[in-house]
Amino acid sequence: MTTIADRVRELTVAREPFVHATVVRAQEPTSARPGDAAVVLPDGSIEGFVGGVCAESSVRAAALDTLRDGATLLLRVLPDDTATFPDTPGARVVVNPCHSGGAIEIFLRPVLPAPVLGLAGGTPISVAVATLAEFLDFEVAASGDYAGATAVVVAGLGKGEQDAIRAALDAGVGFVALVASRKRGAALLDELALTDAERARVHTPAGLEIGARSPQEIALSIMAEVVRAIRVDGLASSPGPAAARPQQAVDPVCGMTVLVGPETPHARVDGRDHWFCCAGCHASFTAA
């Protein structure tokens, strides 16, 4: 049987984004226990156990939020008549009127694929860039397939530089660093006849100005510029097939936000669709 730990490793190796959810505190009569765990996928599906139906609904919504901003979150799920757990900085409180009782805290840790650095060229500079990028937890790809890459560094390909730049731009890469003098880099880009938008994505001379001389120092300046583009400018990986965020709805009985899926309790009344957190709210609504 595949454990949650096995599933976490499997998704990480496959570079699939997910949220690792772990119950850290629970009070009876909630069915969850500290240490219970699950993974939440970008489509809102949950594998594992972190509580009953009402808790799962809150976990789904909060987990998808963490996938968007990459920040961990302590989710506190409380019945509507208690606030037993003290306030904690960085925590989100969710009150569930349909909760069966007891309070629960769940730590949500988004796991996002490491940024990919495409590398073209076999010079001492490109070797130093690869070494430093791996130290910075980038995944280095030198295959020439730049789909999904966050940035591409072109260093010392000679006549192949233009082909590498064109391939990176066509793959949607938002940051292409060309190792060349200012004069040679400008001439090379002029020959490519880039659009203004494409030209803005190519950075040459590559790297921040730090007076770098050795291949290692040049690699430092290049990776510093790449990191700044990610952390300060919001550079993201080139687009790939992304899972659509599930539709959300508000349970008309308890007021919970639920993610709409094939198994979400549903009723159509007077031509209007309603979704519910659980079968109990569905029964209560349809009996009214």
From TrEMBL:
Enumerate the spans annotated as XdhC Rossmann domain.
119-226
PANTHER family given in the database record: ALDEHYDE OXIDOREDUCTASE MOLYBDENUM COFACTOR ASSEMBLY PROTEIN, MOLYBDENUM COFACTOR INSERTION CHAPERONE PAOD
| Superkingdom of source | Bacteria
Tell me where in this chain the XdhC- CoxI domain is found.
14-76
Q: What is this protein called?
A: Xanthine dehydrogenase accessory factor
Pfam families referenced in this protein's UniProt entry, alphabetically: XdhC_C, XdhC_CoxI
Recorded source organism is: Micromonospora echinaurantiaca
